Automatic annotation (TrEMBL):
NCBIfam families: PRK07231.1 (NF005559). One of its GO terms (molecular function) is oxidoreductase activity. This is NAD(P)-dependent dehydrogenase (Short-subunit alcohol dehydrogenase family). It comes from the Bacteria. InterPro entries: NAD(P)-bd_dom_sf, Sc_DH/Rdtase_CS, SDR_fam. Keywords: Oxidoreductase. Pfam families: adh_short_C2.
Length: 254
């Protein structure tokens, strides 16, 4: 598998879950992966583990809420490697669950700052770098909560709807510059966000989600990574502006 041989890929939220699985898969497909995350220790360990498996990876600590840091990272990638071919803007947080009237402005702002403005902060310098090169592929992580409502998660759902709007608009603007921009919309995936210490689900909540799912299981992070790899490879050369649902059929019912 060498779909990304010689390519430079930048992945945010790369220390854990979907970002880590995608870093592993892209490195196995031949890319040099710049893994960025807020969590320095987990990020260093993650990059070391990709390298131990024979991939090429470097870790950079990044807070996607910091616009300047996002621009500086993209610039440093282009300076060091000469080009940026692929970007996966994936860092995200879930917030907590409550009725919309109880979400509160602090939670709303915190979730929007990371999930939506964080994607914007990364996307802008990536578009500039890729426009100069006349090519590139970008995937932004939305969610099935970005294609429909998610009771108890108003801020999260609004942020992910925003990611889809931003993705579609950028796709329209940059198609003529050779840049494809897509959103991936995971369903319930087994990561620290759903089953670990960052989980917003209580046991019964998650059990209900699993038993309502057509496949009766959570998705694996690698199953999202496969879609992201395809969207970033030349195999999807006519695909842009899409919202690509990977949810084991959860949103298929009427
Ligand atoms: N797990 C799911 O069921 C699911 C479903 C739909 C969408 N998603 C989305 O997938 C993405 C990845 O989530 P995951 O499930 O792998 O969760 P995760 O918690 O395992 O990973 C998220 C990563 O983002 C990093 N991060 C958080 N805030 C950051 C910031 N300000 N700057 C840089 N990095 C930051 C965290 O340190 C962590 O490593 C998120 O955008 C999430 O909303 C997840």
């Amino acid at each position: 598998m060498s779909e990304l041989a010689g390519k430079i890929a930048l992945i945010t939220g790369a220390a854990s879950g979907i970002g880590l699985a995608t870093s592993e898969l892209m490195a196995a497909a031949g890319a040099t992966v710049v893994m960025a995350d807020l969590d320095q220790e987990a990020g260093n360990n993650a990059a070391a583990s990709v390298e131990r498996s024979g991939g090429r990876a470097v870790f950079h600590r990044l807070d996607v809420r910091d616009a300047q840091a996002c621009s500086a990272l993209v610039e440093s990638v282009v300076e060091r490697f000469g080009h940026l071919d692929v970007a996966f803007n994936n860092a995200g947080i879930s917030g907590s669950t409550s009725l919309t009237e109880d979400q509160g402005l602090e939670l709303w702002q915190r979730v929007l700052d990371v999930n939506l403005t964080g994607v914007f902060h990364c996307l802008v310098p990536q578009l500039r770098a890729m426009r100069a090169a006349g090519k590139g592929a970008i995937v932004n992580t939305a969610s099935i909560a970005g294609t429909g409502g998610a009771a108890g998660a108003a801020a999260y759902s609004a942020s992910k709807h925003g990611v889809i709007g931003l993705t579609r608009t950028a796709a329209l603007e940059y198609a003529k510059h050779g840049i494809r921009i897509n959103a991936v919309c995971p369903g319930y995936i087994e990561t620290p966000m759903t089953v670990g210490d960052r989980s917003i689900f209580t046991g019964p909540h998650l059990d209900r989600a699993v038993s309502a799912a057509p496949m009766r299981r959570l998705g694996r992070p690698q199953e999202i990574a496969e879609m992201v790899l395809w969207l970033c490879s030349d195999r999807s050369s006519y695909v842009t502006g899409g919202q690509h649902i990977v949810d084991g059929g959860v949103t298929a019912s009427c």
